[in-house]
Specification:
The chain is an alpha/beta fold. The chain contains 10 helices and 10 strands. Helix content is 46%, strand content 19%. One of its GO terms (molecular function) is diguanylate cyclase activity.
């Protein structure tokens, strides 16, 4: 069952919190913050709210300041903010909207208005999230797609080189996949792709990235990961896939492993070395791992 959307109510008045909560508690999960500082702490946690009802006038950090911080952070800027305030001037509303709020509700609180506005912006937020997810994920396997991989991988490589920590990449290819399609049919081939994708994404850490690179090829980026640990993970993966038997079909994979080096400079260079290692694994008999050779 799909969980209810999350609404964060931010207000220093217990009475206002109770009034707002009474309007939306039946259809949404609720979180409460009694200050701007507490609001920022809550939105840094997972899962993030789908919408924030934000009081303008609070002691310490006011609602406008909170909204400005939320909209300046890539992790929170897409969360819709509705200001809830006793101020009723056009200038106040204009200021809130300029800061990035999607709506403005004035006090005294009218339940029908709150319910309608919240429903509208939650619906828009969920539709936006769905479109973003479709743009970033492969529709067959549910893994990230090549577009997302290339975007995030360049950031990860730059960060690893700048901070001098280890990063490893696996390029994975399903062995004899064309033969699987030709022998068992494309529906069976799709089932194999989904089963392999599910298996290689099992146990992946939050900082790692798993993507379908294209066709029967997959890529895993192990962030903050030593070469020995990445090799062990690749060995486990080989055995898991060999034991998988999706649709009763024997499936194996070949893996090219590359450790990020200073000489790589970009993700494209790291990917190229991993791809050459994968080619070597295929050439040497498949169902095996080959490690990339350091560039001269």
């Amino acid at each position: 069952m799909t969980s209810k959307p999350i609404i964060l109510i931010v207000d220093d008045s217990p009475t206002n919190i109770q009034l707002l909560a009474a309007c939306v508690k039946d259809d949404y999960q609720l979180k409460v913050a009694k200050s701007g500082e507490q609001c920022l702490k809550l939105v840094s946690q997972t899962p993030k709210p789908d919408l924030i009802l934000l009081d303008v006038e609070m002691p310490g950090m006011n609602g406008y300041q909170v909204c400005k911080i939320l909209k300046s952070d890539d992790l929170t800027k897409s969360i819709p903010v509705i200001f809830v305030t006793g101020r009723q001037g056009d200038d106040d509303e204009e200021q809130g909207l300029k800061l990035g709020a999607v709506d403005y509700i004035t006090k005294p609180i009218r339940p029908a208005i709150v319910i309608a506005r919240v429903k509208t912006h939650i619906t828009l937020k969920l539709q936006h999230d769905k479109l973003v997810s479709m743009a970033l994920h492969d529709q067959l396997t549910g893994l990230y797609n090549r577009h997302y991989l290339l975007e995030v991988a360049n950031q990860k490589v730059a960060r690893a080189l700048r901070h001098k920590y280890q990063l490893c990449l696996l390029m994975i290819d399903i062995d004899h996949f064309k033969l699987i399609n030709d022998t068992h049919g494309h529906p069976a081939g799709d089932a194999v792709l989904k089963a392999v994708a599910a298996q290689i994404s099992t146990g992946i850490r939050e900082e790692d990235v798993v993507a379908r690179f294209g066709g029967e090829e997959f890529v895993i980026i192990f962030d903050h990961c030593h070469f020995i640990d990445a090799h062990k993970k690749a060995e486990i993966l080989l055995k898991e896939i060999e034991d998988l038997m999706p649709e009763g079909i024997k499936v194996t994979i070949s893996i090219g492993l590359a450790k990020l080096l200073k000489a790589d400079e970009t993700f494209a260079n790291l990917l190229k070395r991993s791809d050459l290692a994968l080619y070597q694994a295929k050439h040497n008999g498949r169902n095996r791992i080959e490690a990339a050779i350091a560039p001269k």
